Amino acid sequence: MDLGISGKWALVCGASKGLGLGCAQALVKEGVHVLVVARGVELLSASVQAMLADTSRPTGTEVLFVAADITTTEGRAAVFAVRREFDIVVTNAGGPPPGDFRDWDREAWIKAVDANMLTPIELIKATVDGMAARGFGRIINITSSSVKAPIDILGLSNGARSGLTGFVAGVARSGLAAKGVTINNLLPGAFDTDRLRGTMSGAAAKSGKPIEEVMDARRKNIPAQRFGNPQEFGAICAFLCSTHAGYMTGQNVLADGGAFSGTF
């Protein structure tokens, strides 16, 4: 299927590894020019070189990178100094650490909200009007399945990402769709990433069980009987960015192997 986005420009955040990288790789394969951003320059540079070396990348597709912290004003300024206008924006930031809510002070909450709610809002604000003026735009926020089924040790993430979800529900329906701009959230369940292993380590420490046992139990509770991989997540992201997804906006698209058992 031709997704109809070849030649567009995308900003993909947190794209040196994991789900962000999976999204960037999928877009590049579709001929989308991509600017990727992450904090670690060495890993980010290596990931970019691998994308440029991929023989499935259409000829002429550009891949640029900025090593910066997108959750800061300075980081966002560094990105927009390279390129100001984007047709596609994929927001993504590392999730807050797991733990007990009794141990989180105001600073921990502000940091979580700043990274996982306010940063995506700032990126939306910076790009959405240009998209509307050009008649096409796709914003995908990588959030978490925890906004539908909260995880007790991920309270910081539950709270911050739910705030973003509420904001998107309103702004996506504010007239942007009539101008060709959609905003959707992509909710990963258990994917084989460093984030999953970190969360499982926290759960193992809390339960006193070996991490292998905790991960195996989590896997067995997923109807698909496996963890997802970044490449299939990226494929979903690329579809939501496509011309074919223009009638989808304000949605929370859950990719979790069937783990969420609710009807809605």
Keywords, please?
264 residues, alpha/beta, Rossmann fold, 2 domains, 7-stranded parallel β-sheet, 44% helix
CATH homologous superfamily name of the largest domain? NAD(P)-binding Rossmann-like Domain
CATH classification, class level of the largest domain = Alpha Beta
The whole-angstrom Rg is 18 Å
Structural class: alpha/beta
Number of helices: 8
Tell me what portion of residues adopts beta-strand conformation: 5-15%
Multimeric state:
single chain
Quote the average pLDDT. Answer: 94
The topology string of helices and strands comes to EHEHEHEHEHEHHHE
Low-pLDDT regions: none
- The CATH architecture designation of the largest domain is 3-Layer(aba) Sandwich
Largest sheet: 7 strands, parallel
> How many domains in all?
2
Distance between the termini: 29 Å
Helix content: 40-55%
How would you describe the shape? globular
Main sheet strand line-up = 3-2-1-4-5-6-7
The CATH topology of the largest domain is given as Rossmann fold
Report on this model:
This is 3-oxoacyl-[acyl-carrier-protein] reductase FabG. Pfam families: adh_short_C2. It is an enzyme of class 1 (oxidoreductase). The protein is an alpha/beta fold and 264 residues long. It has eight helices and seven strands; from the N terminus they run βαβαβαβαβαβαααβ. Helix 1 packs across helix 8 (230-240). The two termini are 29 Å apart.
SSE arrangement:
Elements: E1 9-13, H1 18-29, E2 33-38, H2 41-53, E3 63-67, H3 73-82, E4 88-91, H4 106-134, E5 137-142, H5 155-171, E6 181-188, H6 194-207, H7 211-220, H8 230-240, E7 252-255
Parallel strand pairs: 1-2, 1-4, 2-3, 4-5, 5-6, 6-7
Helix pairs in contact: 1-8, 4-5, 6-7
InterPro entries: NAD(P)-bd_dom_sf (IPR036291), SDR (IPR050259), SDR_fam (IPR002347)
EC number: 1.1.1.100
Enzyme class: oxidoreductase
